[in-house]
Design brief:
- This protein is α/β, with parallel strands linked by helices and 121 residues long.
- The protein has 2 domains: 33 residues, no CATH class; 52 residues, no CATH class.
- It has 4 helices and 4 strands.
- The strands form 2 sheets. It has a two-stranded parallel ribbon with strand order 1-3. The chain has a two-stranded parallel sheet with strand order 2-4.
- It is elongated, with a radius of gyration of 28 Å.
- The model has no long low-confidence stretch (mean pLDDT 82).
- One of its GO terms (molecular function) is structural constituent of ribosome.
- This is 50S ribosomal protein L15.
- Belongs to the universal ribosomal protein uL15 family.
- It comes from Candidatus Woesebacteria bacterium GW2011_GWC2_31_9.
Length: 121
Amino acid sequence: MAKRLGRGYGSGKGGHTSGRGQKGQKARTSIHILFEGVKVKKSTLKKFPLLRGKGKFLAKKKPITISLDKLKVFKKGSKVDLDSLIEKGIISKKDAFTYGVKILGKGSLRKDLEILVPMSK
């Protein structure tokens, strides 16, 4: 079993400094996660534009990509929109409305379809 720090002399690793040595930054408390150690250098946090509230460091949500090969389930001349993609089971309803959909030109398609969702060239 591991020794528990700072729980008295009987724990085997307790007492005066509890295994942290004497003095210094690490002996007192933990270092802040964004601390970079140099005053002159602009910190990573300051380089970001000022954003308030939750979600400050979250990546932008990208749309779900669908290749042309998956559109072969549609009949000739049919409309391809969010509802029809959900109906055919290509994407889930929750993901479609959360992230959005984009059709990419991966593969080939020999049918004439009316596409009503964003797509690449």
